[in-house]
Amino acid sequence: MRKKSAPITVRSGSIEFLKVNSVTWQWRDIYHWLLSLTWPHFATFLLSCYIGVNVIFACLFLLVADGVAELKPGSFPGAFFFSVETLATVGYGHTYPVSLAAHLVATAEIITGMFGMAVTTGLIFVRFSRPTANLLFSKGLVISKFDGKPTLMMRVANQRHQPMVEVQFRIMMIRTETTEEGDTIARFHELPLQIKGVIVFPAALTVRHVIDEHSPLYGRTPEDLERDSARFVASVACIDTVVPAALHSQANYTWQDVKYGHRFVEIYTEAEGDGRWVVDYGKLHETEPYEV
């Protein structure tokens, strides 16, 4: 592996990192890269590869045009669509190779098509079968009193129609601090939560961190968070009971996303008569003023 001079961009939430002098990627990283593409980009990549392969073999068939029956010399459309038929092993019979060179090109394209179809099928299967948590995080964090104490709160909801199990919550604060030696560093602080996890997570709940004398947020004002460039990373790890599989989802917040003197509005109401609970997901992000 050689070092790469061009910087590599890595994004984590709202923060973007440029890696310089890092090792180059390996060929096996292509698999990870293809799985990380969005569906539109993935479809564009496959279409580009498909057209590119057919263009290459169409040019090869033009070079051996005399070895392909009924193929007009110099006809790129004819060679291209003959390549499409060969790659798909359709074989209409009107156009077919008659020379050894043409047979070799057709054989190479058929083998390429077999390998390409196997790889494409595997990639599509993995992309479809890979489970996602599908959790919805509140757009911001709030700080207000809860049970008589200042509390940092975040709301998270399960958008699946089946409960998640063995759910674990974490919130970490990252802020700029100065060491005793005068160096400026990014310090990571794990925020202890009232409820670190639940056995079953069917709908929505509020995750809370009590701001006491042991909290890194104790005595901090909005101006302090801005000065320290405070950021928050929320993480939820759970298990999908349908697949089953371990899932993970996270959200990133900055000091600008923290609302002092607000709390989340109530989203749970009890249905009349049958004892069921109604959860209004439309109010998940709504807040109201409340005492800090």
Summarize the structure.
The protein contains 5 helices and 16 strands.
Describe this structure in words.
The protein has 292 residues and is α+β, with helices and mostly antiparallel strands. It folds into 2 domains: 37-129, Orthogonal Bundle (Helix Hairpins); 135-289, Immunoglobulin-like (Sandwich), CATH 2.60.40. The chain is 28% helix and 34% strand. Strands 3, 4, 5, 9 and 12 form a 5-stranded mixed beta sheet that branches. Strands 6, 7, 8, 10 and 11 form a 5-stranded antiparallel beta sheet that branches. It has a two-stranded antiparallel ribbon with strand order 1-2. A hairpin with a 5-residue loop joins strand 6 and strand 7 (184-190). Helix 2 runs antiparallel to helix 4. The longest helix has 30 residues, at 100-129.
Write the layout of secondary structure elements.
Blueprint: E1 8-12, E2 15-19, H1 29-36, H2 39-63, H3 76-87, H4 100-129, E3 135-137, E4 141-146, E5 149-158, E6 164-178, E7 184-190, E8 197-201, E9 204-210, H5 222-227, E10 231-240, E11 245-254, E12 258-260, E13 262-264, E14 268-270, E15 277-279, E16 287-289
CATH architectural type of the largest domain: Sandwich
The amount of beta strand, in percent, is 25-35%
CATH superfamily of the largest domain: G protein-activated inward rectifier potassium channel 1
Given helix and strand content, the structural type is alpha+beta
Radius of gyration: 29 Å
Major sheet details: 5 strands, mixed
Number of domains: 2
Task: Show unreliable segments.
Answer: none
What percent of the residues sit in helical stretches (DSSP H or I)?
25-40%
Bulk shape? elongated
Mean pLDDT over the residues? 89
